[in-house]
Design goal:
By secondary structure, the protein is of the alpha/beta class. The protein has 9 helices and 7 strands, in the order αααβαβαββαβαβααβ. Strand 4, helix 6 and strand 5 form a beta-alpha-beta unit.
């Protein structure tokens, strides 16, 4: 799938390695669950807890679709602070985590991740062909510039055994210097061109009430940023806004809209198309 020149140029000064290393260093001790370095470090802790719970729901739904047998060897790519590796182990699988940022793996160990953890990038995975029964990529490739996404996806398919399952959770909309989303159709075409076949996909994080609130708040304040960029960490502005009265009011109100959105998310995700979601969840089988 060809992308416009403007999309290709976006993020040309962005380095994934520096971005994640900076997050790991700045937010290692920001919360007790290791979520700040991998989700939204400049938001209240409750916000990341809600997002993690929503992603966990989607993760469980994807696992049912993938139907991994007990004891399957599963690689979590871009494992960060190890939350999915730990969950795989709790479910009786044999997980391994790989991440390009060594500091993230240090945090993962501090979070009691006991499974094997390996330093390596998605574009050059340090594993032999057909090493795993399954793999997951939770919001990883969306942070890789478009020109390099294909190489990362080909590497993922390479290390899967024939018939192995692949779970992707990636942005299908948004705009920021360090995110490179695709539409659901583009994600499917990109992965299938690498040697996999889609089993099923669905939308994740629709957050309709919260998105309406963010839109209205932006219109009132004159800051017309979308609901994604409003919570993204920017390496150019690494210091979060000061906890002013306005900011406290904003997050108090958003607490209500976020929880409301989370309550209706299961129903919305089964009714609305992926194009209305923030992320898409895709389950593929290696052919």
């Amino acid at each position: 799938m060809e992308l416009g020149v403007q999309q290709m140029d976006r993020g040309k000064d962005y380095s994934p390695e520096e971005y994640w290393a900076d997050l790991a260093e700045r937010y290692e001790n920001a919360d007790d669950f290791g979520l700040a370095p991998i989700l939204h470090p400049q938001t209240p802790q409750w916000f990341n807890r809600v997002l993690d719970e929503l992603q966990l729901r989607a993760f469980r739904r994807a696992l049912k679709i993938a139907s991994f047998p007990a004891g399957s060897r599963i690689l979590d790519i871009g494992c960060g602070t190890g939350r999915w590796v730990r969950r795989y182990a709790e479910l009786g699988y044999a997980p391994t985590g790989v991440d390009a940022t060594r500091r993230m793996l240090v945090i993962a160990r501090a979070q009691q991740t006991r499974a094997p953890l390996v330093v390596g990038s998605a574009s050059h995975l340090p594993f032999s062909d057909a090493s795993f029964d399954g793999l997951s990529d939770i919001t990883v490739v969306q942070h890789i510039p478009y020109a390099l996404q294909g190489a990362a996806l080909r590497e993922m398919i390479r290390i899967l055994r024939p018939g192995g399952r692949m779970i992707l959770l990636e942005l299908v909309q948004g705009k920021d210097p360090h995110i490179f989303p695709r539409t659901s159709v583009e994600w499917i075409q990109e992965v299938e061109s690498c040697g996999a076949k889609l089993i099923k996909c669905f939308g994740q994080e629709f957050f309709l009430p919260d998105r309406l609130f963010v839109h209205l708040a932006g219109a009132i304040s004159g800051q017309r940023r979308d609901h994604i960029s409003r919570v993204q960490f920017s390496p150019r502005n690494p210091t979060p806004d000061k906890p002013t009265a306005i900011r406290r009011i904003y997050w108090n109100l958003r607490h209500i809209t976020v929880l409301s959105s989370a309550c209706i998310e299961p129903g919305v995700s089964r009714i609305c198309p992926i194009s209305l979601a923030t992320h898409g969840v895709f389950v593929f089988r290696k052919v």
